[in-house]
UniProtKB/TrEMBL annotation:
Its EC number is 3.1.2.-. InterPro entries: 4-hydroxybenzoyl-CoA_TE, HB-CoA_thioesterase_AS, HotDog_dom_sf, YbgC/YbaW. This is Acyl-CoA thioesterase. It comes from Flagellimonas iocasae. Keywords: Hydrolase.
Length: 132
């Protein structure tokens, strides 16, 4: 399971007075991409949390290329970078409807035990669904 695409329209509340998406909203777009990547794998954040696993972001890097605008149809391309162990890394590309690259990004998240707040290995039920 390498690549997942998730598309949505930019809402007015996500933009500034010029109709440009506020830069901080891109982190939410990346989260939407990750959530849908996991869902396509057959796993939800809710099910992970119900099983005592949290997945906090420990690193986030975004390179902005071009502005996203109000009502643009945005596509977040989410790809797993490598086999997850204690950390899971994703790379992203965000495009508009004209297929123009708006941003590239990279995140690192850590699997954490909800009770102990300690790092843990990637659950087997996720590893079993990956093509590594």
């Amino acid at each position: 399971m390498g690549l997942n695409l998730y598309s949505f329209r930019v809402r007015y509340s996500e933009t500034d007075q010029m109709g440009v998406v506020y830069h901080g909203n891109y982190a939410q777009y990346l989260e939407m991409g990750r959530v849908e990547w996991l869902r396509a794998l057959g796993v939800t954040y809710k099910s992970m949390e119900d099983n005592g696993i949290m997945l906090p972001v420990i690193s986030l890097h975004i390179d902005y290329k071009k502005s996203a605008l109000y009502d643009d149809l945005i596509t977040v391309e989410t790809q797993l970078k490598n086999k997850p162990m204690v950390k899971i890394e994703f790379e992203y590309k965000i495009y508009n409807e004209a297929k123009e690259l708006l941003a590239t990004a990279h995140t690192v998240l850590a699997f954490m035990d909800k009770k102990t707040n300690k790092p843990i290995r990637c659950p087997d039920y996720i590893l079993e669904r990956l093509d590594f």
